[in-house]
Amino acid sequence: MLKQTVFIKGGMGNQLFQLSYYLFLLKKNKRVNLNIEYYNRGDRRALLDIFDNKKHSCLVFCTQDESRIKYFFSRVLNKLFKNKNISFFRKVTGLDLNYFLLHDGYWHEYELAYENRSQISSLLFSDLLESKDFEYDFENVAALHIRRGDYLNVENYKYQTISSDYYYNAILRLKEKNDLKRCIVFSDDREWCLSNLKLPLNFEVFDESLVLREEFYCLSKFKNIVISNSTFSWWAAVLGQDNKNVVCPLYWERGLLSSDYIGSDNWDFIL
Hints:
Layout: E1 4-7, H1 12-28, E2 32-35, H2 48-51, H3 64-80, E3 102-103, H4 110-125, E4 141-146, H5 164-177, E5 182-187, H6 190-196, E6 203-205, H7 212-220, E7 224-226, H8 231-238, E8 245-249, E9 251-253, E10 256-257, H9 258-261, E11 268-270
Parallel strand pairs: 1-2, 1-3, 4-5, 4-7, 5-6, 7-8, 8-11
Antiparallel strand pairs: 9-10
């Protein structure tokens, strides 16, 4: 059987879905590797430090020359087929994947993510469990994630920015279930949060000088989480401790219900 390659690209949430998909393929075919040539062409290197960790023997990579060649062919195929090739099929578990050598996509396969969550947690957090200690009451303080940044760009129109009312009502929903003391806000737009955000709890905006994976680790430790329509906060809600109280936007994209897309039956979905 020829070697299959999964490409890593996009932001941290997407990279975690690609890692999950790689682990899925690895169970079917030991001849699978990861292509991280994307890291040489941009600054979104969210998982670079775990990929550099030689202790993770399950992570196998293309050689440098192989990475460049496969990256080139993947880009050509995407253009030839106008992004309609195999990488954009949403459901992958029923396909005979042995026919495909280049797996270039985002692979938002939520069932696979849940199946692989324990192994992904180990890969992501094993080196942080003792080295990073955050002074938060993770049981009685809420976490809230706000994504703005690239969602404000015209090309990302389908990923609407979430209204301030959603965040206010989401915290109210969590307060119905818990005696929450305050809220920690995680965001890529700190100034907007400080100037515009109104919540029914005292809050502070997370502002520690951490690499993205460490900030993500902190977010994942909270039992009570309000997520945005972002795979970054979705993964933070899924990883970490079990039995979390999670509030999620009713719509993930314009016209797409979150409950139809992300497969988390015990979450609260609100406008």
